[in-house]
## 1
Amino acid sequence: MISKTISSQTETSNLGNYQDIYNSFQWQEAEQHFTWNETGRVNMGYEAIDRHANSDKANKVALYYSDQIRNEEYTFQEMKDLSNKAGNVLKDIGVAKGDRVFIFMPRTPELYFLLLGTLKLGAIVGPLFEAFMEGAVKDRLEDSGAKVLVTNPELLGRVPVEELPDLEKVLVVGNEVKEDAKLIDFYERFDGASKSLDIEWVDREDGMILHYTSGSTGKPKGVLHVHNAMIQHYQTAKWVLDLRDDDVYWCTADPGWVTGTSYGIFAPWLVGASNVIRGGRFSPDDWYQTIEENKVTVWYSAPTAFRMLMGAGAKVIEKYNLSSLRHVLSVGEPLNPEVVRWGMEVMNLRIHDTWWMTETGAQLICNYPSMEIKPGSMGKPIPGVVAAIVDDQGNELPPNRMGNLAIKKGWPSMMRAIWNRPEKYQSYFLPGDWYVSGDSAYMDEDGYFWFQGRVDDVIMTAGERIGPFEVESKLVEHPAVAEAGVIGKPDPVRGEIIKAFISLRDGYELSAELEEDIRNFVKKGLAAHAAPREIEIKDSLPKTRSGKIMRRVLKAWELDLPTGDLSTMED
Ligand code: PRX
């Protein structure tokens, strides 16, 4: 573990002096900004788009969209008009406040018009990742009682329309849709729809978005967020993304996942930034080109993506000019030191780690441009958030003791319910009003948090506690290893032994020598007891869309158990 601190490259930032602000900040300061300050009512659709369209930012570019075919720009004024039109299409087919409207389509500008239009009607939006297959789609529509689904002709085949009694209308975004009692042609109605729409002003505690996420057991759960979350989206856009008026911001996440909405839609637009959205599949050339062409200044992505770019090699990166970048951030999984080193090498920038979850709705523990960074640490809680390490009874543990990473209830963007499952919601909390994340971590004497793994993934081997993340990080530093997932395998003598699943980089083949070399590499880099006793090669490892290796799937393979819900797995 590298423990020396370094100063971040940005000397000035929107956060200023972290400690001073942490000591004095109250969320009420951020609330001043929104309409409820005057009227007691609010709407995310208005705050993200219309507020700017009605200001001197009306002609500023809100959205730079590109994919393999399209390359388009929309100003805040145009986003207002087009989301109003989409809202009118939805209103005409019966969407009203509180209804669940699910959106199951690839990233295109229309997805964003429709998502914003849904919010403007006070309805609750449920974004679904386009790679979901029929079972995953059905589970989510059924559980949420969705009234309307928006999709395209290609994905329509994966929607079991007849088996979903609550589903009244399916809005199809594509050419030549044949309408029937349920199917509605979007473009047919969109073209002639009115540009003016009466916003449905809602209470800040009214439902806004439903993101389904998997736990370790059972079906995916619907995490409900409310309009109040905007306070934290806004404030973290300033402090953590460090967005300023002239920034061009790109978040690579799909809106099917919380990063793609909280930080791909809400945060950047609440502060009126120009937002880049790239459709289509990942390709290193496309991604570098997106940065170069749009002159992206602030970039938010994930370690897996960085590792994929890293794997593509220096020859690709040399073709592009990335000098517009000022601030780069990461989320979703541990930021390996190797990735940080790569960032310094190719961008001359430190990648800033941020920690949060679907359930937390927004960033909570982060590295800010203005603070001393300890490489390997997730950083410190944002002002207004109290984080601690607690035991299973909710008692706070002293520094350097590993335990449950917990957050004091009451931050603005906290989930407000697990849809239809109040008992599941309650199970997140411990006495003392602690929200328990399910992650294990420790806090050092300076108040920095260090991620160790999911609580249920920590390995006990011969009485030693091993964080799988540390072993995985070490493994991927070996030149032959592309990806690694580490689990505890039950062992009659040691309790558990460490088993590593790895995929190899191109040009390597497993041999007894290589296996021994990898094992020694971990032994040397970490500790003898941290080296995997068993190594198994896979072509690729099971991952979630946000890039986390699904250790529970590896464990299930290993122990010949059912793999459980795979709907969040990358295709
Ligand atoms: O285990 C933590 C990991 O991702 C989990 C939350 O996953 P999800 O709800 O899919 O949200 C991902 C993006 C917000 C956490 O419980 N995680 C998230 N960020 C980090 C992380 N693990 C290590 N370091 C992080 N920065």
## 2
Amino acid sequence: PFYAGSGLDVWTMMNQAAAEVGAVNLGQGFMSFPPQCFIRRAAQEALDQNVHNQYAPPRGRPALLEQIAARFSPRLGRQLDQASEISVHAGANEALLSVFTAFLTHGQDHEVILMEPAFDQYAPNIAMAGGKPVYVPLRVLAAADKVISSDDWKIDMAELEAAVSPKTRIIVLNTPHNPVGKVFTRDELAQIGAISERHNLLILADEVYEHLTYGRDHVSIASLPRMWERTVTVGSAGKLLGVTGWRVGWAIGPRALIQPTLAAHTRIVFTTNTPLQEGVASAMRQAVSNGFYEAQRQEYERRRNRLMEIFDDVGLPYVVPDGAYYLLVNASAVRVPQDYLFPEAISSRGPNFRLAYFFIREFGVSGIPPAEFYCEPHRYLAGDYVRFAFCKTDEGLDAAAVALQKLK
Ligand code: GLN
């Protein structure tokens, strides 16, 4: 199967290519700055308690379930029951796999609708669970040779509905969206919700960037009328606290959906690591009162503005992100020479990979080729975009600014 093929995942591939030449790494979305002191201390203190070094319950440590319920009850517009409506996972990624495993059946040709560009882990996770992804691309309703808004990337709702078949089980919705930075509006969510109701589908809402929006409100689709019953909302402590290596995430939904998700989780990893669940719980408790979340949001907004300025300066247009921490840059003005030498692993994956690699070798800055976020027949839609992450230090962004001067 394709998920077990010999091809490297895009993250490892671009990290390696960047490391070879010491490029500024704006590729994979990990933070290049350390987590806040109180967050690291929370984990250290957790390790010092003997009980936190043994198995956690499969559903998760009560202290963390309590914090998740406290944060998300207002966001989802209901009092969450931590005993039945939340499960803790080994990262949001494993939460996604657990949901797919719970609701897709091998041999039944169950289908899952993805909106492209779609985070690269969805499709292989669906395949591992025995399902088949069906792709509906976001359409760009503006001329991309200028700076455009992430709002210009739209789902054609008729196209979305036409993609539904009797085998469809799930629609995956990612808001704020990686890599576009689109924050779906309440109206868009209502339309997607209406389609899910008409065809009795589940919504898997990947909302791992819910805390990072810029001048926009994030709306959880599960908070819309009648949507709670058919939605599993996935979140991430790695994203929320800037600790992507901790691998702690969660799924939230009605008992009927979380029970099978938890059953899958129990068979995939059994439980999520205990000390870091406790660390996350303690950090989330402190973050409520120490102003961390708003300070962090402002920091990201500042980094976003800085990265946009850098590309304004060198004259490459981009999509203004209203959420998450990625900038899609349109590099069609960059000419890759016909005879440029690429390693086979890069050249075989098409022009968008070659462009991202060219950025690494010639400008010393690495990004991610969004072609990886499209199915094969739709790869051309990645055009000349390269995705740059701004969850990076000021020094990193400054170094990128200097390196990119070569574009002038
Ligand atoms: N979510 C992060 C990104 O999009 C990292 C994903 C990963 O490494 N699997 O960059």
## 3
Amino acid sequence: MRAITHFIHGNSAPLAGARVADVLNPSTGAVQAQVELANLAHLQKAVDSAREAQPAWAAMNPQRRARVMFRFKELIEQNMDDLAHLLSSEHGKVVADSKGDIQRGLEVVEFACGIPHLLKGEYTEGAGPGIDVYSMRQPLGIVAGITPFNFPAMIPLWMLAPAIACGNAFILKPSERDPSVPVRLAELALEAGLPEGILNVVHGDKEIVDAILDHPQIKAVSFVGSSDIANYVYGRGAQNGKRVQCMGGAKNHGIILPDADMDQAVADIIGAAYGSAGERCMALPVVTPVGEATAEALRAKLVTAIESLRVGISTDPDAHYGPVVTAQHKARIENYIQMAADEGAEIVVDGRGFSLQGYEEGFFLAPTLIDRVTPQMKSYQDEIFGPVLQILRANSFEEALSYPSQHQYGNGVAIFTRNGDYARKFASQVEVGMVGINVPIPVPVAYHSFGGWKRSGFGDLDQYGMDGVRFYTRTKKITQRWPSGGAVVDQSFVIPTMK
Ligand code: NAD
């Protein structure tokens, strides 16, 4: 059985006698490797390595750190095919989608190539007589990232690229379900010229997450995953005096106004609801048509579009989406479909019971469409995270606006309309962190920032963009005085002012 080990100080770092977890191939259902689960002793090795390496890395001028980022970007591009296949083999998403996963992370590496400019501080000459005030951004030291299974390239890169470029050492704790791509990324970073110890990868589960949250040398923790765990990580990390940002789950709505381009909206919603088997925090699992006529037209077109969807193994170039991540997750999704039926919703298309010939043990689910969903249903309130689209009908714009606004999650939302007035009002008033106007998956580009509201985001700084730079640095503010000769030095017991 292939063993997936930790990556510490530039080397594979096996841990004798460690607990292990199975790494599956979701297309076949087979166990393909075992990943070692770290304990505190192993984390300490990663911390010791990071402590040794970080001061020199921080002292290196930012242009030289940027050059490592440029080279890292080139190496990711050169290895795109291999990385995508590796990613698909553990996650299950189709290879083209894995390339998108890597590409969206690569764009954050591109952003980090501009770190000399991004780190520049502020300067005020002559804030008082002979007095100048300036600020500088300094790295925090050792920081850590804990990432989910659904974007094993993009989300580690969201975190590690700005963290490292800012001069920190970064300890990555990737998802134990698809841990190989994160290790491969760390190897490529080393090849790009990153000093040993600046990027360490430790695998594990709750035990190692708790050790990270309690470790006094780790100054900041970035987390992406489900909301209950995000909430827990936020609380425990903050309690220990760390800077913490935690992104959580989601239940994103797509609002369809009567004037929307219905064919375009359906094409967008189908891709956003079922792409990656719905295992995206920016998926669109709820569609809210406004008015009965809109709802009927939408439903008919959705049913037709679903009929043409192809579910396949992750290497099938014609498949629209692949299996879900584990058998347990598949069962959980099926339970939610049953729950929706029991709650009185109408199962229009039932994706349960689907079997792919030759891959009967794979974790496949055909697309499911559920109509007549209401806000009181638990199957609506919870995140399902599978290829399941729910129709929640609304009678007015105001009612449609209220649904995503009142939902416990507030990650993303989209509105489909040709009316700019409604679109502006919606963008302004909706209680959600990321809004798409005729854009189904409004993941902001790398030089903006990513983050949801309510139970989708804990902490005040978002991922990547300038918020990423702010999260991984602290600002030092300097007030300097160089009095010219002959200045009278007064003793003062009054708080200094510049008058
Ligand atoms: P998860 O919460 O199960 O795991 C996330 C990380 O937490 C993993 O590294 C895991 O090892 C660790 N972990 C698991 N259980 C833990 C525990 N009890 N204590 C401490 N750490 C623990 O999430 P997942 O299933 O890997 O990912 C899917 C979830 O992530 C979905 O809810 C999805 O919406 C969310 N997500 C959110 C965003 C976002 O930016 N808001 C992006 C991607 C995924």
## 4
Amino acid sequence: TLSDHDKELIVKVWKKISPKAAQIGGDALARLVVVFPQTKIYFSHFADLSPSSPQIKAHGAKVLGAIGEAVRGIDNVSVSLSKLSELHAYNLRVDPVNFKLLAHTLLVSLSATLGAEFTPEIHLAWDKFLAVIAAVLSEKYR
Ligand code: ZNH
């Protein structure tokens, strides 16, 4: 679970990157389908899955929007993302292994954005936070 210090680091980084959130989300999603091509099946209804695809960019922006909500409700992520948890479990049926793959590409995109400011400590806090989000998005599966 997240320590108070982790939460502080997450909020601090979010304040810094939120103006670029859509861009970071687009980059993370573009990386996801290139680096882990098995994830493409979930987006097969998109006309274009290339890194410059407007649909990939728009979807990445939505994902980061939800992460922003999770940051705002960081003391109870399960409540902050409950609607999305239902959507992923009942409608989208995304295999939960994919949440780890997206967390990985998101960390890469954060690192590329923050450069040297992406310290090991911030890396750790965000890795834990993305694992909390993944757990929430998978908790309704059975
Ligand atoms: Zn998801 C959708 C978030 C992961 C797949 N998503 C979605 C949305 C959001 C999200 C916000 C929108 C909703 C509405 O519209 O209502 N996700 C998210 C997050 C995460 C995720 C936060 C983590 C972190 N997903 C994911 C993964 C996958 C997915 C991993 C796979 C691979 N999603 C998805 C899909 C969809 C979604 C497919 C639908 C899309 C369309 O548009 O169609």
